[in-house]
Amino acid sequence: MDFGPWVQTIVASGQAPFVAAFLIGLLASLGPCPLATNISALGYISQEVASPRRVLFTSTLYTLGRTLSYGALGLVLFVAGLQVSRVSNSLQTLAEIVLGPLLILVGLVLLDVIRPTVSVGGAWMAQLSQRIADWNSAGAFLLGALFALAFCPYSAALYFGVLMPLAFKSAGGITFPLWFGVGTSVPVVIIGIPLALGLMRFAAGFNVLARVERVMRKIAALAFIGAGGFTLWGWLTGFI
Amino acid sequence: MSKRRMAQKKSKNNNWMMLLIGLLFAGGLIGLSVFSAMSQLSEAGAFAGDVLLGTPLQIAAPTRMLGDVSALPRGKVSHVDVVYFHRTQRCTACLNAGRYTRETIETYFASHLQRGVMSFRELDVQKPENAAVARKYDASGSSLYLGVLMSGIEYLCPIEDIWFYTNNKASFMTFLQKTLTPLVGGL
Questions:
Q1: Per the domain annotation, does A237 fall within a domain?
Q2: Within a domain: residue A239?
Q3: Closest residue in B to A200 (Cα–Cα)
Q4: In chain B, which residues have their Cβ closer than 8 Å to the Cβ of A33?
């Protein structure tokens, strides 16, 4: 059975609204654009193979970053009653312009190709990418928060078009964006944790932990550059 | 070979197995996702400008915004505009939604188009010439709207549930046909 129509029946039944919000998030995470950001997050999280606790911590913070971003945005829409269409418009424009270059920049910093004192695309962007590359756990939070706000057309349609109208008319709807946020991070957690744990077992068995960590940093960097390129290509050709 | 070394060798083999399983698992999932994204892209094909089928509503009736099609009052419908909005940058789901909507209308409502009681438009909200229509419907990104004329009032309502069906053409078309038929059946 198709996942989308199945989610629709859950949403329409109104039986489990929080589960419905979570599933809409999960549906959003399967689109090609969230996929690009989630794959880079995956590389980022699996860098820390030395400690399973840190991997768990990092992926939790990434999830938290996403969740809080969606939650805060939802809160603003709820409280201020802002015109949804205007907010959705400016966030999508932001995503189109900023996301690709930022991903590539973080990738290059992780690779030690550029020092972020050189301001590429503005000093604030360089600083931000340095932060993300340096403090890993806090960086994961920042990354999640940022990725969440970088709306692509499909995730925007689901968040602003499906989730928010549902939230406005449901009791406890103000928490829906949080469940949505958790849903969008699930693929990262499900793939990332076994991957990191498997790598750790392997590296510890061979006493090559430091080397594996270095290699993983390179892989994470490549994932960022790849995802950034994919996003940029999508923007230039009009497909994402 | 001593027992201890045998045990060490065995544990090293285990480690390799763990790595292999981990990589296969992650690689498989990532590969599957990329493959499905790519196949959707190639299916989506190229896009060529705004679309207009049939005759959009010609009179300027007072409008009323509704949250959903189910909120429409009962009564005789005299005209239906179907408008699909999108941004200049389009995703596969958004391309699919536009194409499937057009195909649904062309397949099931061709006679309505001919008789001028229905229209279908596919409009880029970021083009200046479409700004007025986008403002009227309060559309920003990809979204499907109906403009239903009923006793002199034009009711504007979004159909948000299309986003659950953009991966499957058949179920998308069935869903949209079932949504539209009760409205335009009497036309």
A1: no
A2: no
A3: B19
A4: 91
Contact (CB<8Å) B168/A158: no
How many other CB atoms sit within 10 Å of the CB of residue A86? 11
Give B56 to chain A, closest Cα distance, Å: 23
Are B33 and B17 contained in the same domain?
A: yes
Q: Which domain holds residue A157?
A: 3-232
- Six-digit token string for A81: 């009653």
Nearest to A199 among B19, B41, B175 (CB): B19
d(CA A223, CA A47): 12
B69/B124 same-domain check: yes
- Domain tally for chain A? 1
The alpha carbon dihedral of A177, A179, A182, A184 has a sign of negative
Buried b (16+ CB within 10 A) or exposed e, A109-129: bbbeeeebeeeeeeeebbebb
Q: What is the pLDDT of residues A51-78, one digit of tens each?
A: 777 778 888 888 999 999 999 988 888 8
Residues B104 and B128 in one domain: yes
Chain A residues touching B30 at Cβ < 8 A? 39, 42, 191
Considering the domain architecture, whether residues B74 and B135 belong to the same structural domain is answered as: yes
**Contacting residues of A for B47, CB less than 8 Å apart:** 238
Residue A240 within a domain: no
The C-alpha of B139 sits at a distance from chain A's nearest C-alpha, in angstroms, of: 6
Per the structure, the complete domain to which residue B24 belongs is given by: 1-44
CA–CA dist A41, A39 (Å, integer): 5
Of residues A83, A86, A162, nearest to B163 (C-beta): A162
pLDDT digits (tens, 9 = 90+) for A103-142: 888 788 777 766 544 444 556 666 666 666 666 667 788 8
pTM score above 0.90: no
* B129, B81: one domain: yes
We report the CATH number of the domain holding residue B58 as 3.40.30.10
